[in-house]
Write a structure and sequence with these properties.
There is one protein chain. Helices cover about 45% and strands about 15% of the residues. With about 325 residues, the chain is of the alpha/beta class. It has two domains: about 240 residues, TIM Barrel, CATH 3.20.20.70; about 70 residues, Orthogonal Bundle (Non-ribosomal Peptide Synthetase Peptidyl Carrier Protein, Chain A). Helix 7 links the parallel strand 8 and strand 9. The longest helix is centred in the C-terminal third of the chain and has 19 residues. The two termini are about 35 Å apart. The protein binds flavin mononucleotide. The site of flavin mononucleotide (FMN) has 21 residues, from loops.
Length: about 325
């Protein structure tokens, strides 16, 4: 699979997720085998004005490369300047968010709002393409109505502007996360355009990865929610893609993944902030395991990395020795 000049090792991509696909989580997903990771959406305005929190979102680590940075915005000049900044910071790809439908974003004319404004979108994409050499991608939804015609039209505009690939989450902007992703639109888009098409939406299991590729002919599969607390979905999907039987992570792999996640967060955010975040995030990794809600309540007052690591280790030791195995 090739996006512009960039060759991906395999067809598995971690979806951008605000508040989740920060560097600590991207590193886990990459270790688990996905070929490409994407930052959460970064405000072009914030980048251009040098907001500390926005710039922090661009922090990367060699182990996660290649890295795609996603930006959102509505003004061609601001998007162009933001794109320059992203490239100068070392991103391997630049992705433009055309799918976000939250009110705050749509109200400023950004994200999914641009799917209804092909001329303005064309101006933005051309302005950005003019200043970046790295591959340029877009991430879209079906559009504002279910037919999917807007998705096809917008992708054609993007192709003309020199965009190298499109990722589609085939739900309408109004749907949010309701209903089901309409995979038939991924197949249709693949027939209509010549740039690579990345399929996304409702991939819940490793089997779904293979099924999406088979049913839609998409060039790569992007996984979002199913990877939260379960980066091993990429390892398992890779096995399946190589016609091998996938194996679920054992308790020791889950334990060590969770501990690495804690350490990655402490290194990235500093101990106090990371530990506060871990109180709600570490439970992602034990979801569905015996006694997970008791474990969740037991960590809400923890204050240090060591306490958090000890609690996780104790919980997994208990699981190892208990009769009830996950
Ligand atoms: C918590 C959360 C945050 C998200 N943030 C972004 C984002 O910043 N940019 C974006 O393009 N999509 C974002 N998405 C959408 C996902 O990238 C993806 O398109 C969607 O979740 C469907 O894929 P899935 O069914 O595999 O989760 C977000 C989704 C979730 C659940």
């Amino acid at each position: 699979m090739k996006i512009g000049s960039l060759v991906l090792e395999n067809p598995l991509i971690l979806a951008p997720m605000a508040g989740i696909t920060q560097l600590p989580f991207r590193r886990l997903a990459k270790e688990a085998g996905c070929a490409l990771v994407v930052t959460e959406m970064v405000s072009a305005n914030g980048l251009v004005h040098g907001g500390r929190k926005t710039v922090e979102l661009l922090k990367s680590h060699p182990s996660e490369r290649p890295l795609s940075v996603q930006i959102f915005g509505a003004d061609p000049a601001v998007m162009q300047e933001a794109a320059r900044i992203v490239q100068a910071q070392g991103a391997d790809l630049l992705d433009i968010n055309l799918g976000c439908s939250v009110r705050k974003v749509v109200r400023q004319g950004a994200g999914a709002a641009l799917m209804g404004q092909p001329e303005k979108l064309g101006a933005i994409l051309k302005a950005v393409r003019g200043v970046v050499d790295v591959p340029l991608t877009i991430k879209i939804r079906s559009g504002w109505e279910p037919s999917g015609d807007q998705a096809v039209a917008v992708t054609r505009v993007a192709e003309d502007a020199g965009v190298d690939a499109v990722a589609i989450h085939p739900r309408t902007a109004l749907q949010g996360f309701g209903g089901r992703a309409d995979w038939s639109l991924i197949a249709r888009l693949k027939q209509c355009v010549s740039i690579p098409v990345v399929g996304n939406g409702d991939v819940r299991t490793p089997d779904d990865v293979v099924r999406m590729q088979r049913e839609t002919g998409c060039d790569a599969v992007m996984v979002g929610r199913a990877s939260i607390g379960n980066p091993w979905i990429f390892t398992q999907a890779l096995e399946l893609l190589h016609s091998r039987r996938p194996r679920s992570p054992d308790l020791s792999e889950r334990l060590h993944g969770t501990l690495r996640y804690i350490d990655n967060n402490v290194n990235h955010f500093g101990e106090a902030r990371a530990v506060r975040m871990m109180r709600s995030r570490v439970p992602w990794f034990v979801k569905g395991l015996p006694g997970c809600s008791r474990f969740r309540s037991s960590i809400i007052r923890l204050k240090s990395r060591q306490e958090m690591r000890d609690a996780v280790q104790a919980y997994f030791e208990e699981l190892q020795t208990s009769d009830v195995k996950p």
